[in-house]
Specification:
Blueprint lengths: L1 H26 L8 H4 L3 H27 L10 E6 L5 H9 L15 E7 L6 E6 L2 E5 L5 H13 L10 E7 L5 E5 L15 H13 L4 E8 L8 H9 L6 E6 L9 H8 L10 E3 L5 H5 L4 H13 L5 H5 L5 H43 L5 H24 L8 H37 L8 H31 L2
Parallel strand pairs: 1-6, 1-7, 2-5, 7-8, 8-9
Antiparallel strand pairs: 2-6, 3-4, 3-5
Bound molecules: guanosine-5'-diphosphate (GDP) and magnesium ion.
Magnesium ion binds next to helix 4.
């Protein structure tokens, strides 16, 4: 009940905040980033325009972040951008380029929990990072720590093996070198489990991805390498299933430097939306390849090299002017898309928050009354509580793959120990039963059918056996309770 009240008071605060933000937003003139360079040729005007853009967009992004922080996304869908793609398609490289921070990478499954990356651009000031997950929060000033801290968080949430978990890790980065953006990175799609991974890892990952992309409030960022057949990629197929009209899907094509010679025209057609049309379109980017990383090429140099690559490309140079190529272009487009998306979602969000508030108020009222005093209503009340309890236990035991939530995973070891204890007494129990029956037969040789008192003898024997199990059973119960 305390939790409910707390959530309700948050909803009231947030709703007022939201109204205020919407009003502020409406006062401001609309923004558009496209063609900014040609509209404002001198640098100073362009900088003013950019700052105005940032000031307009930031309150919207911050508003949604603050709603997510209080856990409202569990109740209603909040506008967000989810990054999906096959393993090694280049997701981390794109996020790295956008954030300027080296994220964990390597072969195989690296992203094992959803990672919310909140980027906040500062006018000036030092680089600051904050990582938070399941009650833990830590602020740090060294970008090189990101990799280890994210790995540590994943190990704590998803275990040290290669499993995944659906609990969110949030990484906030404030710096003058990032754009204002919040993205959620998801584990890469994989088909074949490697050793140490559960058999159904592919399905677990797909379910986790679906949880995010199925919501109509999510912009789906599909990352696809240029050097594969895009139409057959699982990530795009999943996006198409969740967003059949392609209204909220934006595709990023990576690794343009690895295209087979002769396939450039095909890729160009894809970027221009001639093959699979998406209303938010395509952007092609070139990130740091493995050799750039080995050579420790810094991000800013890599971005210059990227622009150089597109400028000099026989087929793709025109894409640069069309706003369809480069990380910079992607950052601008994503920020604009997210802000537009938030602005469009605000009215429905307000309605959803109001409805949720009414629901909670109604629920709260039920609790305030407490158990009914009239005898004829007591039965139903008790019944409801028992049903609710059993639903929650059912939910707890079935739901989630997270070790923290799944009661089977959590208590599996205890039950295994109990099972082997029972099995270890099986043989001696059988032997004692046979011995008892033999003794009985010996004693009653020549008599007729068993009488009730003789059944009692058997019952006493069983009771005695059960009583020897009582103490270990209570001990196990204690262990289970201590698991919280
Ligand atoms: P993820 O599994 O989807 O996160 O993929 P990664 O970002 O870890 O990328 C997989 C590999 O592709 C890494 O070795 C990257 O360095 C490399 N890579 C990513 N983008 C590019 C690119 O544009 N060009 C080249 N040559 N390699 C890239
Ligand atoms: Mg990755």
């Amino acid at each position: 009940m305390g939790l409910l009240k707390e959530k309700l008071s948050w909803l009231c605060v947030e709703e007022t905040a939201e109204r205020r933000q919407t009003m502020d937003y409406d006062k401001k003139s609309d923004y558009d980033f496209q063609g900014e360079e040609s509209l404002f040729p001198d640098r100073e005007t362009r900088e003013t325009f950019r700052n105005h853009f940032i000031e307009t967009v930031r309150p919207l992004i911050e508003l949604i972040d603050s709603l997510r922080l209080i856990g409202l996304d569990e109740d209603i869908g909040l506008p967000s951008i989810a990054v999906v793609g096959d393993q090694s398609s280049g997701k981390s490289s794109v996020l790295e380029a956008l954030s300027g921070v080296a994220l964990p990478r390597g072969s195989g499954i690296v992203t094992r929990c959803p990672l919310e990356l909140k980027l906040q651009r500062l006018k000036n000031g030092p680089w600051t990072g904050t990582i938070s997950y399941s009650g833990h929060r830590e602020t740090f000033n060294d970008p090189l720590k990101v990799d280890n801290l994210v790995r540590e968080a994943q190990n704590k949430l998803a275990g040290n093996s290669l499993g995944i978990c659906d609990e969110l890790i949030t990484l906030e980065i404030s710096s003058p070198d990032v754009c204002d953006l919040t993205l959620i990175d998801l584990p890469g799609i994989t088909r074949v489990p490697v050793s140490g991974q559960p058999e159904d890892i592919g399905d677990q990952i797909k379910n986790l991805i679906l949880k995010y992309i199925a919501k109509s409030e999510t912009i789906i960022l599909v990352v696809v390498p240029c050097n594969v057949d895009i139409a057959t990629t699982e990530a795009l197929r999943m996006a198409q299933n969740s967003d059949p009209e392609g209204l909220r899907t934006l595709a990023i094509l990576t690794k343009p430097d690895l295209i087979d010679r002769g396939a450039e025209i095909d890729v160009l057609n894809i970027v221009q939306g001639k093959v699979i049309p998406l209303s938010k379109g395509y952007i092609i980017v070139r990130c740091r390849g493995q050799s750039d990383i080995n050579d420790r090429i810094p991000f800013d140099k890599a971005m210059e090299a990227e622009l150089e690559f597109f400028r000099n490309h026989n087929y793709f140079s025109s894409l640069l002017n069309d706003g369809k190529a480069s990380i910079q272009c992607l950052a601008d487009k994503l920020t604009k898309e997210l802000a537009d998306h938030i602005k469009k979602s605000l009215p429905t969000l307000t309605v959803q928050i109001q409805n949720k508030r009414l629901d909670l108020q109604r629920e709260l009222k039920n609790y305030e009354q407490g158990p009914p005093l009239e005898e004829e209503r007591m039965g139903n009340y008790l019944n409801d509580i028992i049903m609710e309890f059993s639903d929650q236990i059912y939910e707890l035991s079935r739901n989630g793959h997270s070790r923290d939530k799944n009661i089977y995973a959590l208590l599996g070891d205890e039950f295994k120990k109990w099972d082997s204890r029972l099995r270890s007494t099986e043989e001696s129990f059988k032997a004692s039963v046979i011995e008892m029956i033999d003794k009985y037969n010996e004693k009653h040789r020549g008599r007729e059918l068993l009488t009730l008192s003789e059944f009692c003898e058997y019952e006493c024997f069983i009771k005695e056996h059960v009583s020897t199990l009582e103490e270990p059973a209570l001990e196990m119960l204690k262990q289970v309770r201590e698991h919280d």
